[in-house]
Design a protein that fits this description.
This protein is an alpha/beta fold and 367 residues long. 42% of the residues lie in helices and 17% in strands. It has helices at 2-14, 20-29, 31-45, 51-70, 75-90, 162-176, 200-219, 258-267, 286-289, 291-306, 328-332, 358-366, and strands at residues 91-94, 110-115, 129-135, 138-144, 149-150, 153-156, 183-191, 224-226, 229-231, 316-321, 339-345, 350-352. A hairpin with a 4-residue loop joins strand 11 (339-345) and strand 12 (350-352). GO terms for molecular function: glutamate dehydrogenase (NAD+) activity; L-aspartate:2-oxoglutarate aminotransferase activity.
Length: 367
């Protein structure tokens, strides 16, 4: 049940034009096909099977599935069931047969790695690989444009289409990374069961717990390097080549999580050590240092120079998007005491102060 439910959730993220209720009805209305799908998955990935046995049984059950699908009368049900078939066929690895199937806090999760090019009807651009992590408390995904890829993990608030959000970010990261060796990657997760009291501290702790599950789901399917030799995950059938390179970075909502990710990597004895997650106590904290904002401020200086204005010495009226807790906006508003911020908004608040007193405002922002 968990397997079929997780594929349903992935298909929602992949943009299938059917609701989870529609997909559940298609499976319930064709129990024999649902059973065949699960059997095919187990034949492909059960490490207890011999390779020759797996190949022989795989051909047999594929023939049974194709024959059964020909008997499906509803076009919607046929499309849904074939979508399940396509996802299982595109899987390269899964944590399903690993033990234990729980994260460090005892919560169950399931992850699988997909060859994105073979998943039917995925929107463009298609990553090289993606890993989907499913658990009762969180769903998450990691998209990679190549074998050596780098990008951040975002705490998303988009329950139905966080993959769409992450895909757009990965596309942008591919462009940003053209001048360095790694190509673009991006990840994201959605917290499904935030605290009922809605307290900031409670939500933050739940986000950390969900982030931890996501990182464990990714590392569970990633090869390690020990004494110069690639070591695959235990009890894992692989349909791809050695793939030991995985790094993550901070993004919206996860700026302070690098130490947490590196701690998990240490628990896995992952070969990259504290280079797994950039930043943290042993690296650069891009938010504390204001690296991105400082770079953006140089562009601001250039634009104002062309207008004959010096923003470091002359008052400038500002309207913005963001808040003082943010990386780019928050740090950017501290780079000159002459910024007169009269309005700003983010996803939670609207700030309006048309009669701002400049010097007092600068002190308030720093505080």
């Amino acid at each position: 049940v968990a397997l079929l439910r997780s594929i349903c959730k992935y298909l929602v993220q992949a943009g299938i034009p059917f609701t989870p209720v529609n997909m559940a009805r298609a499976l319930a209305g064709h129990p024999a096909i649902a059973l065949l799908l699960v059997r095919w998955f187990k034949i492909r990935f059960d490490p207890a099977r011999r390779d020759d046995e797996r190949i022989q049984e795989n051909e047999k059950i594929r023939a049974e599935l194709n024959q059964a699908l020909e008997q499906v009368e509803s076009s919607d049900a046929d499309r849904i069931l074939r979508a399940y078939l396509g996802v299982i066929g595109a899987m390269l690895r899964t944590s399903y047969f690993q033990r234990p199937l729980r994260d460090s806090e005892g919560y169950r999760f399931l992850s699988y790695k997909l060859d994105s090019a073979n998943v039917p009807d995925l929107p463009l651009p298609r990553p090289l690989y993606e890993i989907f992590v499913y658990a009762p408390q969180v769903e998450g995904i990691h998209l990679r444009g190549g074998r050596v890829a780098r990008g951040g993990i975002r705490w998303s608030d988009r329950s139905e289409d966080f993959r769409t959000e992450v895909l757009g970010l990965m596309k942008a990261q591919m462009v940003k990374n053209t001048v360095i060796v790694p190509v673009g990657a991006k990840g994201g997760f959605y917290v499904k069961q935030p605290p009922k009291d809605g307290s900031r501290e409670g939500v933050f702790e739940e986000g950390k717990r969900c982030y931890r599950t996501l990182i464990q789901g990714l590392l569970t399917l990633t090869d390690n390097i020990v004494a110069g030799r690639v070591v695959p995950p235990k009890r894992t059938v692989r349909y791809d080549e050695d793939d030991p390179y995985l790094v993550v970075a901070a993004d919206k909502g996860t700026a302070t999580f690098s130490d947490l990710a590196n701690g998990i990597a240490a628990d896995f004895h992952f070969w990259l050590g504290d280079a797994f997650a950039s930043g943290g106590s042993v690296g650069y904290d891009h938010k504390k240092m204001g690296i991105t904002a400082r770079g953006a401020w140089e562009s601001v200086r250039r634009h104002f120079h062309e207008l004959g204005v010096d923003p470091d010495q002359e008052p400038v009226t500002v309207v913005g998007i963001g808040d003082m807790s943010g990386d780019v906006f928050g740090n950017g508003m501290l780079l000159s005491p002459h910024l007169k911020l009269i309005g700003a908004f983010n996803h939670q608040h609207i700030f309006i102060d048309p009669h701002r007193i400049r010097n007092r405002a600068s002190r308030t922002r720093r505080r």
